[in-house]
């Protein structure tokens, strides 16, 4: 499944990044590496972007970009 | 001199450490060709001269955002002696990821564990000695916000510098990737490079454009790198970028587990609790509005009140200048004097905003330091994304005047932080549409003249239509001229909230105000000179000069008739004496106006008494009846002179080059209902919008001494209908605020081409809409309010339609799961 399908409070681990180029590098640098634990903290008041917890810090990602992250629910 | 470079992640408290160790002897330098600032501080410590450069915060050295390019270029061009890596101790693991990349550069690193107080509060215990041993570099503790750790940092720096020669470059083992690194090292990296060759090899393998360009890697060599990459992929099933990231994160995790102890169970932090409210679905917008309102209230309204206190300083400066330049001989004002007064007026008009700016910049600094900015972007991104903007565009638009009366200069300047290049450019071009503070007097003048009844409704239209215009324009621009610009993903950290330090906020605000003063005021003054020349020349014709001279003689003889009957005639019996007395009278009047208390008024009296001796009684006659009658005549003469000067000025403007331009534009602008006077007012107000009112005011005075207010005079003497007024209003709404804004647009884009676009596109838009509304309105017989309502409805509808249009899935195409 993909990260954008998760609801508030759900947790998952990252399996694969389906992005290329600069976005892929940026995601890697922000800690989106294989096996990283991700928790969906909340959605923005207008449902997009979403707020995630990864490596014990908070990051926001638009749904379109979250849709490129293949995850496994925990 | 020891060259130190300060590196660290955003939000790690780098600036507080910089302020802590460097004092405030620093200046901001714009890195050539890039709009990112780097701060430089020079100071000495125990006899050693130190140059410290604060690089922009970066998460990594491998992805190539603007900040990272600047940071990387600095390191390979300036080769610093030591890298001072600031690490957020409360988020150690994440920060170590960057530390490893810095260590790999091959320059000695000193790690500063900052925010130790926060870490302790969260129950995180860190063993610096162990970390020091594992990383092979000094590790120092600090708490920048509490001012702790400065000494330790400086000592570690000095010690490291003295043993620099013994430094063995740090090396990370990449296991399966090692043979490939070696291969690149041998074939591509030049042997004579001053930088660590292994680092260069890593960068080439990471496909780092900056370094690849720097090493001038050929096409054949690039193919070689790609082949390497492919072979690695087939062996390990991973690509090198992911492998590097994974490896570095694992190493960071290792260090964290060995050196840090988490005692407390990680419950909800204070930041989490605050976020429950700030980012709550229902509370987020009310809170946002409240904060924006507060920023607006404190800076624009409060700052404007402060100008009541700073204005006398500027006025005193003006008086000082007026006194230092040659004084006018009755109606003959020396050109130099005219120019000096014009320049001071232009400068003062801009300097007057400094309190507003200072408060505004301080508020921005507080919001930045607290950590509200990324949250603001998080809340509003969805709305702005639809129009090609970015969540981070909110603040620039608000500062620009989304709520009537902002200033585009700080608005445009605050776009600096927007990561998305395309959205940043769109925001810079959208901000000038907001209603700036200086346009408001103009609106009130026009509304007061033509829409006394419907003022509230019209003001509502004016103040809200601009936001919709800005959204439409940015949508249009991002889907046309800006379409090809780089966009960035919305991958943004929401850092924990931090209390800002007073010193940090003041320094930040002062630096930004200083940038404003330096760049903006200097260029605005240059433009003022040009405008002055355009308004001053070719000047009056001989015949009208004679006419004015006759008027003057008339006024003088009236004064003389009164003076003759008094005992003081001897002191005013020549033209020179009268002129001197008149100048003294005007200067006395101006000084008395500025003195607020009776003591300071007395002081002014004393000064003038000493200067004039016998003449003073004519300025302040008291009970002396004869002196009183001269004084009355003097007031009349002064008024007559002002009147003549005003008419001379009007005639000069009419005959001036700018006046000619205004006239020559009439054939075109008449379709929008503009006559040459409006054209001139618009042209001259480009230096500062306030002068539009002044120019119009002086143009519409009917040269008779009456007590008509500017609004009434305009209504009575212009011959405009409310429809004309609407066309004028629409043009004013759409045109960019002032030359200062355009200068900052130039600064942000670093290109004159874009500055010209930012000037002429809105003007084109303004001409189009005012022509359209005026011509159509005339034909259809619309009233002013009707015309404005139609315009408003059209704009709002267009914005809504554009906002509802389906957009492309996302800015990203390609990848393994291509959904574009």
Automatic annotation (TrEMBL), chain A:
Limits of the Ferrous iron transporter FeoA-like domain: 1-73
InterPro entries membership: Fe-transptr_FeoA-like, FeoA, FeoA_core_dom, Transcriptional_repressor_C
Keywords from the UniProt entry: Iron
Pfam families referenced in this protein's UniProt entry, alphabetically: FeoA
GO MF term set: transition metal ion binding
SUPFAM superfamilies: C-terminal domain of transcriptional repressors
Name this polypeptide is given: Ferrous iron transport protein A
Organism: Sulfurospirillum multivorans (strain DM 12446 / JCM 15788 / NBRC 109480)
UniProtKB/TrEMBL annotation, chain B:
One GO CC term, this protein: plasma membrane
Residue intervals of the FeoB-type G domain: 1-166
Localization of this protein: Cell inner membrane
Molecular function (Gene Ontology), one example: ferrous iron transmembrane transporter activity
Residues passing through the membrane, by range: 278-296, 353-373, 393-413, 425-446, 458-477, 513-535, 723-745, 757-781, 787-805
Keyword Cell inner membrane part of the UniProt annotation: yes
Keywords in alphabetical order: Cell inner membrane, Cell membrane, GTP-binding, Ion transport, Iron, Iron transport, Magnesium, Membrane, Metal-binding, Nucleotide-binding, Transmembrane, Transmembrane helix, Transport
Annotated residues for binding of Mg(2+) 2: 19, 23
CDD domains: FeoB
UniProt cross-references to Pfam families, sorted A to Z: FeoB_C (PF07664), FeoB_Cyto (PF17910), FeoB_N (PF02421), Gate (PF07670)
InterPro entries per the UniProt record, alphabetical: Fe2_transport_prot-B, Fe2_transport_prot_B_C, FeoB_Cyto, FeoB_GTPase, G_FEOB_dom, Gate_dom, GTP-bd, P-loop_NTPase
Binding positions (GTP): 8-15, 33-37, 54-57, 114-117
Membrane topology according to the record: Multi-pass membrane protein
Chain sites annotated for binding Mg(2+) 1: 22
Gene3D superfamilies given in the database record: 1.10.287.1770, P-loop containing nucleotide triphosphate hydrolases
Function: Probable transporter of a GTP-driven Fe(2+) uptake system.
Family recorded in the similarity comment: Belongs to the TRAFAC class TrmE-Era-EngA-EngB-Septin-like GTPase superfamily. FeoB GTPase (TC 9.A.8) family.
Full protein name: Ferrous iron transport protein B
